[in-house]
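User: For my dataset I need records formatted as: sequence, then structure tokens, nothing else. Please produce one.
Assistant:
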Amino acid sequence: LLCPCLIYGAYIFLPFDAPLLPTVSARLVYTLRCATFATFPIVLGMIISGISRLCSSALEPFGELQREVEIHRTYVSQSVHLFILYFFNMAVLATYLPQELLKLIPLLTGLFAISRLIFWMSYAIGRSFRAFGFSMTFLPLLAMLLWNLYGMFVLEPENLLS
């Protein structure tokens, strides 16, 4: 319930509009530029993972990882996988959205970045707390996937492969 409320509130109250993007290629470039900001939590996780690996007291560099190092490594791995799914769904979504709804692309990107950071913090606290951050990432991804499938098979079935 929180994700749709956050997206709707940001859509209504944030004072920006998407630029005029009449072609599919312009929309894809816009999505690619917005997706760059979604890589911030992943790059930050890589930096923190490297620092924690350097500062760990392990005598063997390829031996058993400490819990702190393992948390950051797992976070980066899961975030990369989710980012790939998120980016491809956003790219398809950008081709189906009407011009007045293209404001959702940067809002969904911001939601992805914030929810990955929330997941990271809650994962560091304890494994039982990570469901909130994961659901804030996964449920919008699932909603985009369902909308993309609906758009491909119901709204424009004649343009499915073109």
